[in-house]
Structure prediction request, 267 residues.
Amino acid sequence: MKKIALILSSLVTANAFAAGGFTWMGVIAHKFHLHFPTYILTTGLVATLLIVVGLIYRAKISKLSVENRVIPDKGITLRNLVEAYGSFIYTQCNAVLGEKDAPKYFKFIAFLFITIFISNVIGLIPGFLPPTEYINTTLALGVLSFVYYNIKGCKELGTMNYLAHFAGPLWYMAILIFPIEILSNMIRPLSLALRLRGNMMGDHHVLTTFLNLEILGVNVGALGAALPFYILGLLVCFIQAYVFTMLSMVYISLATAHHDHDEHHAH
Prediction:
C-alpha cells in the first residue's frame, strides 16, 4: 500500500508541475526543436490518437462478415466502446435534429464531441495540459461549428433564403431585426469558445490548488483530498464537451429548420 501511495503521489506531483510549466509536450518540443506551442502539439497528439483508434476499429470491422457485424464482442473491447459511443451520439442527434436529419449531421457531431472530450480529459493525465484551456483552440472549435452550420443552412435553404430568415417574418421590421440577428449569429463562436475555455481553465486551477500540496513532499492526505477533484474534473470534461456539442446541434437545427417548414407548405 505504501508503494502504491508513493506511485500515485509522484503522478499527482507531476501533474502539479505541469500546471507550473513542465509538460511532456514541452520536453518533446525542446528535444526535437519544434517551434510550436505545447497546446498545438497536444492537439496533434489527440488527433493522432483518434485517427489510430479509427483505423484499428475499421480494420477490425473489415475482417467481420456482414452477419457478424451486428453481433457485439464479448466483454469490454475497443469495438464495443466505439459502437457504444456512436450509439450515444446518434441518440442525441436524433433527439435534437430529428430522425430525418440525424444521419446527415451524425459524423460531424461525433467528431466534435470526441475531439473536445479527449482534449479536455488529457489535461487530467500527469504532464499534460488540456488544449481547450487556450482560447486559440476553443475559438478554432467555435469557428468550425459556426462555419459548418452556416454552410449547411445555405445548402438546405439556398443562400438568399438563408440570409432572408435573419430578417424575421415581418418585412417592415427587417431593418431592425436583421442586424440584431446577424450580430447574435456572429457572437456564437465567441460564446462557445469563452464558455469552454473558462470552464476548463477554472477546473484546472481548482485541481492544481490541491495537487500543489504534493510538491512539498509525499502526503497521502493531500492525495486523498485531490482524488475527488479528479472525479469532478472528469465530470466537467464530459459536461463541457456535451454542452458545446448540444449547442452546435441546436444551431444546426435553427439554421436548417425553415427548410422543413417551407417544404411542408410546398406539399
Observations:
- The CA atoms of residues 47 and 115 lie 7 Å apart.
